[in-house]
């Protein structure tokens, strides 16, 4: 296919073409998009990178300390995610233009066991199970012949379903200050195994990819009092990305998120939870954007 006139279309072909191309590239590209939609390690709420726009929405709910014995505690997190990826308009010589788009919906459940080493350090072991559906909603305006070529190459009109299993390990350091504020430092390492099923056009995602993150936060406990409710101010900075072969395959290798959030305790159906909402700035060597956060734990 020698009608390519832009780096973006070349990138699309490398990552999202059919079995005529390298299975390694095919699986790796899909796996990284799926991992991006599922992971908490990499922020992409509103991200622009190398002609691509990423929009990610995630709503987690954590059942914390469901079972506690000695220095061990068991928790469970449920999460729903939506990721939309769009490219800018790509001209294919004089025969038409392509705007790539993929939508990914996913749900997951993650049991977690935390071991408290001492009053400051704890180790988190998590195993996430989930399902994801990726839809190719790319549009092409131009000749019918080129449309058929792009469809045959896997750049138009398909759906991809997959299950995933992701083991994850983390280390957290918690420091309580005399004024009841907190300084927390943490890091995570995860590896996602994905397996596709009932997919069209012989597309598959039997692959795996790794993610990592490290960060810290300063929690100003009960800093704001409003209408009888206490709000804590959370200042944080996190950096996360992919690791392994082709870790920059999505045009960025890591994302830094500097954020500001408010957190308040609430009672929901008799259970005490903390609700957090905030905003952050995303950046890397060739990407930037904004992160909007909402979490319940």
TrEMBL record:
Which domain of life does this protein belong to? Bacteria
Record's protein name: Uncharacterized protein
